[in-house]
Every structure is written in C-alpha cells, then in structure tokens.
C-alpha cells in the first residue's frame, strides 16, 4: 500500500509540472481534439486551495470497437447539507463493460500514456475519491458539464443508490444541467433560444397539472418562465395577472421564476464554471420504473427534496421531472458591458400527473429589471423588478410571490427560502392551488397566509401538523392556536415547525393561527376538524367482533407508515372511553392494551386477558382504540408522536366481566334500564324533526332536508351494521333547533323501515352527529354526544339482548320510535338548464337568454330568508360566428345568516380533475378526501355524492330545509332549487312565485305580475327577465350580488343589458334556408323537446343539445315524483311481545300478527291498509299480546264482573219489585200476607224452632206464613196429576210422634221406630215414581254401589268412586216426568234390567231420608227387617218381589247369599202425611203449590 501511495505521489508531481509548463499549448490542442478535454480548475467556496484534477484519457482501440475518451473533471461542492435522508427501495444492475475496456484499463492507459510509471493490476482509483463507471463517466463530479452516456433503462434489476450517494447529490443547490454529451452534442443547451427567438416549444407527452389546468406541452422562454399559452402582445409594468381584459387580450398561463425580458449573457474566462451561458432544458420521464443510474438518482433526489421541503408531500414520488436552467442571462436593453451582469437560476418541476411541485433555485442574482421596465442600461437596476409567481391564464387567477416579486427585495431570493436547508431554494405546490413550502421573513401584515399539512385531523387530536410560513428560530417559542385550544410547537428546522393537534370539541372549518415569540397571531389559516364517526379510518377491524357482547378475539390493522417509516419502532395500544356526567364532556383513559409492540400494522386483542381488571371508571360504555409511538424520538427525531384513533366502538368486549360482577348475569338489562330511566328525564326531541319520506326515491330527491348516511350508503357503505336488511339510509343534513337528527332507512323494495316493525328500523337521534353550538357542553359534542345518547343504548338494549326483550321494545317503541311518513310533503322543485331554459316551481317553462347575474329565487318572508342567484355568460362561438345565447356558469346562494356558498363552472382545460369550483365565503373548498365529503358551515351543509370523484355534482343544504343541486356534464351546467312547503306564496325571482297557480309565476320585484305571452321570448326578456338583473349596488326588492369578486370583476363585468339574444323559438325560424340539414339534425336529436332543438340550432353543439334534453327530462321526472300523492297508512303498531309477518304500510297491504310463546293474541289477527290511507277498523279490538296468566285472570274477572254487574242488579230489582208489590198489596189490604213456598225437606229442628213444641198453627203471631211448617199438621194439595182431572183431597193430619224417623232429619231412635198411617196407593196405573226433593247417590239399586267390604265384613269407603257415580246420576233425568228431581232413589224394577246402570224411572217420596250408612255410625245389615241399605226407613210400594233375590253384585251360584227382605210397614196412601194449607181446607188456586206424584 505504501508503494502505491509513493507511485501516486510521483505521478501527481510529474503531471502537474508538465501541465504548468505547457498550459496554453495543451489547452489549444484539446480544443481541436475531440478525444481529450480541457483541464479545469475549480475553487471550492469553503476552501483556500485550488484542487487540480488529472485528465483521464481513453486510448482509441484500433481496428473495431474502440472506446472514445470521456474527459471529466472533479470539483468540490459548494454547499453541503449534513442531515441524513431516508431512502426508498431501489433496484440494482450489474456494471456494464464498454467493449471490453473497463475503467481500470482506461486509468492504466492514461497513466502509461502520461509517462508515469506503470501501476499494478489491482490499482483502485476509488481510493482517490473518484466515482467512475465502466463506461468512463465520472459520477463524482456533481457539476460535470457532460451528460451521462447511458440511456433510460426499465429492465429488471437496476442501480441501487446508497445513503452516502444520496446525501452527496443532495448537497448541491443546483440540479444537473449539461452543455455537452458523450456523442459530441450540445447536451441540455438550447442553442435555438436567443434574442431573435425567445421561446421554444416542448412536447411533454404526459399530463402536467398546473393551477387547476392540465397541459401536455410547454414553452421554454428566454424571459425566465415556462408558459402554456401565448403571452400578451405587450406588457405594462408593473405586471398584473390575470389580464383583466381577457379575452380581448391574451392572458398567458405560466410559471415565472424570473419573468422579465432577458438576453444571453457572457462569462469571464476566469469563471470557474465555464459552461456556456444560455438556457438549458432537460426532461426525465417515467422515473417510477427507471433502473438506470441517472434516472434513479434524479428520482430519489427530487423525491426527498420535495418530501422534506414541502409540508404534506410525505408520500410523493415523482413520475416526471423537468429541469430548466437559465445560466448567466442578462437583462434586455443594456449596453454591451452589461452582458457580464448576469443572473443564474433554475426551475425544477416534478409531477406524478396528479400533484405538481416546483423548486426555484436562485444561484446568482446581479440585476433586477430590464430597460423596458425602467431599469438602467448598465446595471439593470432602478426599474420595476422581475415578476416571480404563477398565472393560471384564461383570465382566472394568479399567485404573486410576495414580498419579492416586483419589489426591491427581490435580490434577497438568494438568501431566503431555506428549502432543504439551502438559502436561495424556494419550493411550491402548484397543481391546484399555489401552496408555498418555504419560509418568509420579509413580510409583515395582519393576516399572512400559512402553509400547513395535513389540513384536516380527527377531533380527538393527535394529528401532527407541519407548518411553514415565517422563518423559525429554535430560540423563539411557537404557539399554535386551534379554534379555542393552544399548544406549543416543536422546532424542526428554520423552514418548519410541528404542532400536535389537541382534543378539539368542534367540527368543520375552524381557525388555525400561530405566533412566533412575542408576536401576535398574524399567520393564519383554516383547519378542518373531522368528527370521529366520519374521520379518515386509520384503525381497521377485520370483523364485526368488536360489536359483540363477549367476542373471543378482535383483529385490528393499521398502516404502520402513518406512525413512522421505521419498521423497528415500538408502539403502544391503549383504550379510551367517553361519558357525560357533568356539563363538561369527559374523554378518559381506561387501560393499556399493549405497551411494547413492534409497528407491524396488525394485532389481535384477546378480551379474556382483561377479565380480572377492575377499573374505577367501568361505567364507560363506548370509546376508542388509540395507537401511538412508545418512543416518539423514532419519528423524525422529535419527542412528539402521531396518534391513530379508531372509529367509536362499544366496550362490552372489555367491561363485560366487570359489569357482570357489578350487575349480575343480566348486566345488559341493568345498563339499558339505567339509560331508560335517565332518558325519560330528558326533553322530548322528535317534535322538531322533519318527517321521513315514504319511499327511497322521495328520500333521494329531498335535497334540502336529507343527505346520505355514511353508515348505510348504497354507493359507499352498503354494510349497514346497525341497520341490517337496509340498502340506504338518509339523515337530516343540519341539526334542528334543539340539535336532534332524523334518520330514515329503506329496504330493498324502497319502503321505509320502522322500529315498530323490526330492530333494524329508522331511529331518530337526540343528538346530531355534527353536534350543536356550543360544542364544548355535554349533549352537544359532535359524534360523542350522539354515541352517548343514541348509539350506546342500542347495544345494551337491543344488540346484546333479544329483539323481543322488554328493554329492546321499550327502546324501539318508546324512547327511539321511528316516525312514519303520514303527512310527509315532498318539496317543490324549479330549475334552469341549457342556454338557458327555466321551469318554475309551478311548472311553467320559458326561455330567457339574459347576460349577467340574476336572481333565480329569493324569499320575501322576513323571518325565513334565502336567496339563490345565477350568472349567465355568452355561449362560445360556433363555426358560423358568435352565438347570441347564454348559458349558466355560476350559482351563489345564502340563507338568513349562513355562510355564502358559490359554485362555479371551471374552464374547459381546468376540468380534468374538478368539474366545479366550490367557494365558501370566497375560499375554495374541495371534497376529494373521504373525510371531507360532507362539510358543514354556519347554517349550511355542502357535500358531493360519494360515488363521484370529479366534483361534478354539488348539493347545498340550508338549515331551513332549502336545497340547491348543481350538476355539470361536459361543461354544461344545471341548477335545481328544492323548497319545503313553508315557502308557499313566499318566493320571487326567475323561478316565480310558488302558489300552485301558474298565472302568477312571473312576479316582478314590486310584487305585480307581468302580463306576458309565455311563447314570446321578447316579452319575457324585456318585461320580466331583465327586471331581476343584479348590479354592483343594492337594488330594492332585488338585492345585492352574492358572488365573490376575483381579479376585481364586479357584476358590471358580466352584465350587459344591451345584449340582444335570439327571440325565435324553432330552428327553422332563425336558421337560414340553406341550413336545412341543421334543422333536420335538431329534430333527430331532440324530438319533442323545443329546448333541445333551440339549443342545437343556436350552438350546433350536439353535446349541449343532449344535456339540455337530459336535464329537462330529469327535472320533469323529479317534479312528477314529488307532485305524486303518496298514500300511506302509517305506522301499524307491532304488538308488544309479538311481531308482524310483513312490514308494508301502503294501500292493499295485509298485515298478520302473532305473539311470542307464553302470550295470547288479543284483538284482530289481521289488518288491511285501505285505499284511503287508513287501516281498517278492527272488528275485535286493537291487536295486542297478553300473558297467559293475565289472560286467565282477565277471564275470571270478567265472570265476576258479569255476576256483580248483571245478577246482583237483577236480584236487587226482584227484591225491589217484590217489596213494591207487597207495599201495594198491603196498601189495598192491610191483612194481606205474602205466600212463601212450602219446603218438604226442612229439618224437624227448624220446624220446631219456628213453631215451638206446642204450636200447631202455620202462622206466627202477626199472621205471616212461617218459613217452615211442622209435619204433624195437615197438608193439602190441589194440583191435578198430569193428564188427569182435578181432584180435591180432604185434609188429614200427620200421625207421627216427636221421634218420627220419616222426617228429613230422622231421629236418634229411628232404627226402632216405624211410620204409622202411611200407605202408598198407585191410582194412576203408571210405574211407581219416587216422591220427594232429595236425591239418592245411585240409580242402579244394586249392592255394587255400596262400599266394598273387607274379609271381616267391614265397609270400606270409596269416596272417589261414589263421587263419580253421583256425577253420572246427575246427568240422568226421567223423560216422562220433566218436573221430577234428579238423583232420586231407584225403582226396584231396575234390577230386572240387563244393564244396572241404565237410566231408570225416578220415584218420589216426601219422607225419604238422605242419611247414608257411610255417613253414620251404623252398618248396613241386609237381614234387618226394619232397615234398608241406606240406613233409613224404606218408603216403597207394597211389593216384596223385589226384595226376595240377592243383590246384583253377588256372583251367580254363590252360597249363603242374603236375600233382600221386604220391610214390614203400613201402607202409604196419598192422603196421608200432607200438611194442611194455612187457610181453608180447600185453598184458592193462587195459594196452591204444585206437587208431582
């Protein structure tokens, strides 16, 4: 190694001596020799020595394929940047061999040819600091004037750039530019650009977005700009863009790094950089797939310069790069010596065909003004300095880089900017708007523009906001002010400060301001706060397990690059919850899920790991997952960490075991009941909500009141997690006065879904997702209050319980019931389209070609005001010249005190990305980010449909229910206004008065109705339309224009009352006769639409005619839909603890009901929706489900009620009647006594108690008949027998002593007593029948009715059998004697019947005893002569044949069978034993009682 160094030192000394001795001759030879190049010296700005670099001379290869000499020089860099840079993946490619001649051989040949001693074969030039490839190109010289020899390559494998190499190429301010190439060409030098030809056209062959427009070409100008359209014929200083006289004067579109008239200057021979003065241009395309070394280095250098230099460009990868350099250019008009007064600057344009960034590098500035602008001819000073900025062209907008442009401080551009740490570098984003990426310290004002990114963040906080504006000092404090919250900034570099967004209780656009040091907040911007429910989703749940009550696991994913690009960084996952127990919202930390996890982008949560936790705040029922860095310094080396938040989630998976320990196994019921109890104390909110439309079509076209619900959107989110079976939901666009929100969901048939029918139905919400001012109070916080009061209880009441549970039905039917569509009123619609044609609210069509700004519709009501204005500009020329017609180009609208919204049609070449411009109070807003699709301002919500990305449809919703829809297609615009019925007879303007009367549509500003012919366009134009033209001043009853004024263009710029349009209606009337083809073409395209025919005839534009017809048909269809009366029967209540078998509520629908198990359906089982919009009247009462136990009680109560309400009053009436009758009789006859029915079965004790032992009378002392009479008296009956003549029987007294056993009660000695003077004589010839009122237990008369005896002859009681037999007896009655009593003693003849238990003839006995041997102490003895088997005295016919055979229950052939013995009694006659009547022996018929015998 020492030997090598010695050889190298000798070589260097020898070569330096030879070069010093023959410098001049050697240089002249090299000028004429293409194989060698000049030896150059370059002095480093930071060094005190001159570095001399040897030439590397390549020897010609004789014969074939000889390599050429690639002369290079090596110079030191001028500026360094010590910071490290992040690298993107790159490809590798093997070194190429140039015809077998390697770099080692070239170096060896050079050394040998220079006369040096030979070196060894393993000589390595890299030890000298050179980076020379195999093709001989010196990559180490960043200012190499020779272009790389290699061409663009896209092959597999490729060059891999190292961190050291990337830092090396980024350490230079200027990008590459070459004045030569290896083939002897001029490199990047544009020799065709000179004083007589100042610009050169360049085809880009890719899309270059710039200032809203898109271009595929550019023009490189000597005058310090890239232009995309022709400049004006002459310039007026100071320059003002855009040109106000456009289109009379050309308004160029350009990127001006130094817009001033220039000429090519000169350099001194002693200048270090001897590259040719002039303009350089280099274009590198398709860098995304480039694998060659130069392509990779250009891509990586540009990418990291922009990513680190411009906030918000962290993911940018350039696809194409343009490098334009103006080297040593002087000012125009100067003397010859002024050619050495030059400026050097460079413009780098990088784009991915969506975003475009510009880098301005100012290396040298010696002059500021040309002579035409007033500068002197020697130094270029004293006049108006050059213009620095951007102009969109076409009379649209511009951006001037203040305070430098056209100001004396323009020379400070070389020392300002500090892009990537370089003084003199300024960065911009220029695709849609101009956003500065460099600091500015030379400007001071009360309201300075602030550049920051991202411009939106989650309301919960944690978004890292990169800020550029003032030049920052690490010693000065930076304070960031988000709405009402202040945070301190973190210094990154002189050009950037980072602030972490705090938890903001707000939504939409809020103020964002910063202050530096002790200065006031003068750097300002607008920051968009995303509600947590609509924020950009950064933590994803693979499944819906997180919504379950007790899932086994939860899989989450996130993009690790949202935290840091460091793959080894550690992160922490934590859980947070929210509650409202005081007036202040509370977002609280709950637990750490994982503390030290590698940032891999996925994690599985196992809820069982947290079952033993016992959190003090376990009353939190919903919350969020949070992910942040454990060591924040791994992110940009700062002590702050970005934060990722999930969407709101229920916390049942975490707290379920704690809730179970606290509330028991039925903890969902406890949580739900607590919420129900608290919710009942809150105000009722549904009264202010708008009614839901009946059908999905109506909901889609109610633009003023409803917008799509992002939780269930048919276009963007059809999952509908909390509304299964729904295909689309809409919600009210703005909160009502109390902050509530209406929700309407529709099934696959487009029918409104109701909570009364199913748990997935529409649910009104107490709190709107947008919240309500002031947002910092409980119940008004965006999203959080909505979840706390409306989403949270759905989980505990329904999702975690059965749908038919009491709590869920309480939630659905009582606390959050759907509102039906009965009474819904579709809005009125009016519109404008074409060039232009109008349809009023009452449906009147007409055409008015006004030029200027006009009132389309405005409210004349003082309490509810709105105004919609339209701007109409002349239609572009056709092939025949000017078109005397206009078209709609802009709409402006405002509510009572709302933000003013303006929607403009963008120019033709600016519609590549956005078709419409939307301005809120003059500030452009965009909807391309998912979280910014819906934007809420003061009193107004603006959104674009989720299925559109080009902003071609915009819907504006005011809080009064007014909606405005703007649609664009191919540059043709239509506007539609939707009004609720509150504005009937309260509108005026070109859309007329909405009164359902077409005769008063054309109302003038003074309130009178214009008398015009609707087919006469001239009358409409002069007598009505022009009356509603707006001016720069306020016109009574017309108002002031709401349009924002760009570039000083007022209403008079657009208005022209002297414009005379075409007033003829049909093309054949206004087209020349030689253009019959156009007339036929109009008929072919348009058919019956005169609006379409008119537009085609005027413009000859088939697209315009097509969209005119399309807009007309759409507007007519919307009007027909909204005017069609929708008949609905409304909500048919689902019975609690039951269900409906279908959910339709339109006419013809038949709904059947059924109840849950354990319930009984009451009322009608089916209801029908009638054609008149009413449910049929229930026949059996309204349907409901009743528990079975309650149903049984109800039946019992009904029975009792019938008894109480029917029988008792009836008895009272009877008693009252009897009493009245008795009083009447007593009044007529004071001695009258009421007859009481005689009882033959009264007990003897009762008889004795009534009459006494010695009283023989039948009446008491007052002469009233006793209730019971003694049986020792005479009883007389006078009733005739059935079918027999009347017989009077003489009275006869009973001959019974006091111990007579024939009474109903018997006596103690009844076993030894017999009746006397009793004889039964059957005088009728019929079968004997038993007489008496008491019944026996059996009608068989056999012994099997008696209790069975055991072996010892003891009777055994068999009560159940006896009761069963008695029940059978109760059902038998003698058909021949209908008046007979049941259960009478059987006749002996029944033993002769083959069936003993057949129905028998009943017999009567007035003295039969009901005493049974089973109920007395004596046993039945069949052989006893004076006792029958009933234990009493038998009273039977005098016939013994029935008592001489064994009982029927004794088997045949049995021995020692006792026979029945006939009793020895005296005969019983009919005249014996009957009590005498109370009066005469022969009583009157009214006093007789009937006795059947």
Q: How is the largest sheet built, in terms of strand order?
A: 42-41-40-53-52-51-50-49
Percent of residues in helices: 10-25%
User: Proportion of β residues?
Assistant: 15-25%
**What's the rounded overall pLDDT mean?**
79
Task: Compute the CA-based radius of gyration.
Answer: 56 Å
Q: Between the first and last Cα atoms, what is the distance in angstroms?
A: 157 Å
Number of helices: 19
* Regions with little confidence, pLDDT below 50 for 5+ residues: 17-128, 1264-1273, 1294-1308, 1313-1318, 1330-1444, 1468-1493
The major sheet is characterized as: 8 strands, antiparallel
Strand tally: 59
Shape call: globular
> In terms of structural class, how would the helical and strand content be classed?
alpha+beta
Quick structural gist:
This protein has an eight-stranded antiparallel β-sheet with strand order 42-41-40-53-52-51-50-49. Strands 7, 8, 9, 10, 11, 16 and 17 form a seven-stranded antiparallel β-sheet that branches.
Characterise the protein shown here:
The protein is an alpha+beta fold and 1493 residues long. 16% of the residues lie in helices and 21% in strands. The protein has 19 helices and 59 strands. It has an eight-stranded antiparallel beta sheet with strand order 42-41-40-53-52-51-50-49. Strands 7, 8, 9, 10, 11, 16 and 17 form a seven-stranded antiparallel beta sheet that branches. The protein has a seven-stranded antiparallel beta sheet with strand order 48-47-46-45-44-43-54. A hairpin with a 4-residue loop joins strand 10 and strand 11. Helix 6 crosses helix 7, helix 7 crosses helix 9 and helix 15 runs antiparallel to helix 16. The longest helix has 41 residues. The chain is globular, with a radius of gyration of 56 Å. The termini are far apart. The C terminus is likely disordered.
